[in-house]
Amino acid sequence: MSCLILIGMMGAGKTTVGKELARRRRMRFADCDQAIVARTGVSIPTIFELEGEAGFRRRETQMIDELTREPDLVLATGGGVVVTPLNRELMRERGIVIYLDVPTQVLFERTRHDRNRPLLQVENPRQRIEELHRARDPLYRETAHIILAGGRGNPCNMVRQIEEALARYKADTCRP
Ligand SMILES: Nc1ncnc2c1ncn2[C@@H]1O[C@H](COP(=O)(O)OP(=O)(O)OP(=O)(O)O)[C@@H](O)[C@H]1O
Ligand SMILES: O=C(O)C1=C[C@@H](O)[C@@H](O)[C@H](O)C1
Ligand SMILES: [Mg+2]
């Protein structure tokens, strides 16, 4: 089957839920952020320091392109994947794109103690999350085939909701 691609803000649960989804469906799993770290041998904050956000975005596009060439993959993307138009096009072409739409307050609670997200290392991370969420939400929506309210329920619960949504999506798209 084609790739299942999870998109959404930092802290939406793409990595956590994606791993469990892949395990349940016996598919391969990849995380774009982790693949970039593995390839470069340095952390994401270091890539931002050395190459700026633009450098990171170029690596992200290259990695999305490579990873989605093979089917049977659950792909957890980075939170900013949709800001690059080519990524949006590639993802829609090569997989079923699922947007985990999580309220800002929940995103803030989940990310507040994690230093690994350079865009949130600012004086007011809550406000930054709100700004990014507002700017990106329309892009997540235009890219996604499936949109799920992902704020409630533990990761296993989210996986169940994704599986139900996939079944509905497939039934709808197969109808003559
Ligand atoms: N459904 C959930 N319920 C409760 N906690 C969750 C849920 N999903 C994720 N978390 C927790 O929230 C934090 C962030 O999750 P995760 O790293 O999976 O987000 P992400 O969408 O991959 O973020 P990023 O875009 O920065 O990679 C983790 O500590 C994870 O354990
Ligand atoms: O929201 C973003 O722009 C980012 C999210 C993370 O997953 C990483 O891809 C990186 O920190 C940038
Ligand atoms: Mg992640």
Strand tally is 5
The quaternary structure here is: single chain
| Percentage of residues in DSSP E strands | 5-15%
Distance between the termini: 20 Å
The kinds of small molecule bound in this structure are: adenosine-5'-triphosphate, (3R,4S,5R)-3,4,5-trihydroxycyclohex-1-ENE-1-carboxylic acid, magnesium ion
CATH class: Alpha Beta
* CATH topology title: Rossmann fold
As a percent range, the share of helical residues equals 55-70%
Function: Catalyzes the specific phosphorylation of the 3-hydroxyl group of shikimic acid using ATP as a cosubstrate.
InterPro entries: P-loop_NTPase, Shikimate/glucono_kinase, Shikimate_kinase/TSH1, Shikimate_kinase_CS
Pfam families: SKI
Catalytic activity: shikimate + ATP = 3-phosphoshikimate + ADP + H(+)
Tell me what the structure shows.
Its cofactor is Mg(2+). Substrate binds at residues 33, 57, 79, 136. Catalyzes the specific phosphorylation of the 3-hydroxyl group of shikimic acid using ATP as a cosubstrate. It comes from Thauera aminoaromatica S2. Mg(2+) binds at residue 15. By secondary structure, this protein is of the alpha/beta class. The chain has a single domain (3-174), classed as Rossmann fold. Helices cover 58% and strands 14% of the residues. The protein contains 7 helices and 5 strands, in the order βαβααβαβααβα. It has helices at residues 14-25, 32-40, 44-67, 85-94, 104-111, 125-143, 155-174, and strands at residues 3-7, 28-31, 73-76, 95-101, 146-149. Strands 2-3-1-4-5 form a 5-stranded parallel beta sheet, with helices on both faces. The longest helix is centred in the N-terminal third of the chain and has 24 residues, at 44-67. The chain is globular, with a radius of gyration of 16 Å. The chain starts with a strand and ends with a helix. Bound molecules: adenosine-5'-triphosphate, (3R,4S,5R)-3,4,5-trihydroxycyclohex-1-ENE-1-carboxylic acid and magnesium ion. Adenosine-5'-triphosphate is lined by residues 8, 10-17, 33, 76, 78-79, 110, 117, 153-155, 158.
